[in-house]
Design brief:
This protein is mainly alpha-helical. The protein is built from 15 helices and 7 strands. Strands 1-4-5 form a 3-stranded antiparallel sheet, with no helix packed on it. A two-stranded antiparallel sheet has the order 2-3. The chain has a two-stranded antiparallel sheet with strand order 6-7. A hairpin with a 6-residue loop joins strand 4 and strand 5 (170-174). The longest helix has 34 residues, at 272-305. 33% of the residues are buried.
């Protein structure tokens, strides 16, 4: 969805920020309670499972999760980042030097800096100055694409969220006038830092909605709003270790995300539907992370089983690729490419692993010969 400044004087209805009781949200506690308990339970299960896998694998899982969080949060806004550059930037800024395989540009480093500050320093107060530093990190050149924007300060003009061709725009949302932003953000930040009676997961849902409704910056409000949600989720877990990516799941459900935001901002201050969607999305993000955990545990179990077998570095490299989810079928030519060896060497490596009971030849033969891990073959049967 694009952000444009347009002259429109006629629209139907009111936005929630125009209602007399704004920003006093309400919700159906009965409908929310069971969902909240369920999400909290899943958070605990995931944290317990992840902390049992050992430091090296834990470090790699956190690196993967944060990389996805940065990439997908930008992708929601239509910006595609180079995931390898993001991974290197995350690794470097976390001090995982062995995983930082390449350089990253200033813009990517800035996006990563914001996410890491939100999640690694979750226990620090959220202040105007901190938000300004996040905004400057997102837009180090002072531009959004080709357009010059106000950076590191509240917006000075009106912002409308619209879609459609010029002259046929559909207005999805009109943010509060610029003169209200400073006062609105003072109230928001006071609530973030001083309201302690609301469960922090529920608070994350409310904070994201509240922030993007104020829309305090010229651009980057969605990304910063999701970073605020991540900060509060980290507080809810009392941990800087990130095992799931809410932004990745929001990207999967992007159309519904924008639809429920629009519906909520044009409704009443009863935000039950928004909270239900947010908690559901969060639970689905955690379920995805359980899949990652199972893959990690499969790797641990595999290497425990074959610990006493002689396996060379080429074989170890390709086996790890198979355990991580190899795309397509493994053939000797693909082995040679991954291991960077000759076709003959690849064939010898494969035969050796078949003899050791680690690989099995698939049913099709001849020139189409392909191979699978014995443990994966058994689990699929």
């Amino acid at each position: 969805m694009a952000l444009r400044r347009i002259d429109v004087t006629i629209r139907l209805g009111m936005y929630i920020h125009e209602l007399p009781n704004w920003p006093h949200f309400s919700w159906n506690q009965y409908r929310i309670a069971e969902l909240l308990v369920q999400v909290r339970h899943q958070q605990g299960r995931l944290t317990g499972g992840m902390e049992s896998i050992g430091f090296h694998l834990l470090e790699q899982t956190i690196l993967q999760t944060l990389t996805q969080d940065v990439v997908k949060s930008s992708e929601i806004e239509g910006e595609i980042l180079d995931s390898s550059q993001v991974r290197s930037s995350v690794a470097r800024q976390l001090g995982i030097e062995h995983a930082a395989l390449g350089l990253s540009d200033r813009h990517i480093d800035g996006v990563v800096k914001m996410i890491l500050d939100a999640t690694q320093n979750f226990d620090k107060p959220l202040t105007k100055e901190r938000l300004f530093s996040w905004h400057m990190a997102l837009f180090p050149e002072g531009r959004s694409g080709w357009k010059k924007i106000t950076v590191g300060a509240w917006r000075k003009g009106s912002v409308d969220v619209v879609s459609g061709q010029m002259g046929k725009e559909k207005i999805h949302f009109e943010a509060p006038p610029a003169e209200r932003v400073n006062g609105e953000m003072k109230s928001f930040l006071k609530w973030i830092n001083e309201e302690h009676s609301i469960d922090l997961v529920l608070k994350a849902a409310l904070a994201h909605l509240w922030f993007v409704t104020i829309h305090p910056f010229d651009d980057g409000n969605g990304r910063i709003g999701r970073a605020i949600a991540d900060l509060l989720l980290a507080r809810s877990e009392k941990s800087c270790h990130r095992f799931y990516s809410l932004s990745q799941q929001i990207q999967v459900e992007r159309k519904r995300y924008y639809a429920i935001l629009e519906q909520t901002q044009q409704g009443t201050l009863d935000v039950t539907l928004w909270i239900e969607w947010f908690l559901g999305c969060l639970e689905r993000a955690i379920q995805e992370a359980f899949g990652v955990l199972e893959t990690v545990l499969d790797k641990v179990r595999f290497w425990e089983v074959v610990a006493n077998l002689a396996i060379n570095e080429r074989q170890r490299k390709v086996l790890n690729r198979l355990l991580d989810g190899f795309e397509g079928k493994l053939t000797s030519s693909k082995w040679a490419k991954v291991a960077k060896c000759s076709q003959d060497t690849a064939h010898r490596d494969i035969v050796d692993l078949i003899e050791k009971g680690i690989l099995i030849k698939n049913a099709e033969g001849g020139r189409n010969s392909s191979y699978s891990l014995v443990m994966q073959k058994r689990s699929s049967q």
